[in-house]
Design a protein that fits this description.
By secondary structure, the chain is mainly α. The chain has helices at about 5-25, 35-40, 70-85, 90-115, 120-130, 135-140, 145-170, 175-190, 200-205. The longest helix has 26 residues, at about 90-115.
């Protein structure tokens, strides 16, 4: 992006974030539902910070403990939420919403890098922000794994895009922090949700 376009992009990003929050604000007063009970309310492992290392143990992801899917980042985020909010569901819903806002902004930044038309990038991010298909993931606390994987994937792509652009412009070593952060996002993705494993394929297709 040209330097002259930064200010408009900041304003657009702020408006996208505001609109996303307004659309999903009605989820904040909601309580826990369905699988939230077993994964959060009745889950003693997330209620002590000292248990966080246990959440990386594959043996913890058994049918008699939680659903057998290795997604420790989601449970660590629940533990952090519990530290701040206890069992007040509003805080957990707010975390999901903030993760969605982060995904929307990362997508907008990525689209600005591949589309010449700002309006097209805004439209793409806007559709993603308010798409009904995103409602369950944003408003269902249990879907934290989906929210984490989404923001890591989009942020990783955005960072890799910046690395590629700065490198092409002769930025030298200044490009490598973006590359390192992109790889960090990739490394964390499988711990959020399995579909994060597609990230290497996306980067391969890119280059």
């Amino acid at each position: 992006m040209e330097r002259s376009s930064v200010a408009p992009d900041v304003r657009v990003s702020a408006l996208l974030a505001l609109l996303t929050c307004v659309v999903f604000a009605n989820a904040l007063p909601n309580g826990f539902v369905w699988d939230d009970a077993s994964l959060i309310v009745d889950n003693s492992a997330i209620k002590r910070v000292g248990n966080i290392p246990t959440l990386f143990s594959p043996s913890w992801f058994r049918d008699d403990v939680v659903k057998p899917a290795y997604r420790p980042l989601a449970y660590i985020s629940f533990a952090v939420d519990y530290g701040f909010w206890g069992l007040r569901a509003t805080g957990y819903h707010a975390t999901n919403l903030l993760l969605h806002v982060g995904s929307v902004l990362a997508l907008y930044g990525f689209l600005r890098g591949v589309l010449e038309c700002r309006a097209a990038a805004v439209l793409g991010a806007l559709v993603f922000a308010v798409c009904p298909l995103r409602v369950e993931a944003v408003t269902y606390v249990k879907s934290r794994d989906e929210m984490l994987a989404c923001v890591l994937l989009l942020a990783g792509l955005l960072l890799f895009q910046r690395f590629h652009r700065v490198k092409e412009q002769g930025g030298g070593t200044s490009a490598w922090p973006s590359f390192g952060l992109s790889m960090a996002a990739f490394a964390l993705l499988p711990f959020a949700k399995e579909h994060g494993l597609v990230f290497p394929a996306l980067l391969t297709a890119w280059v």
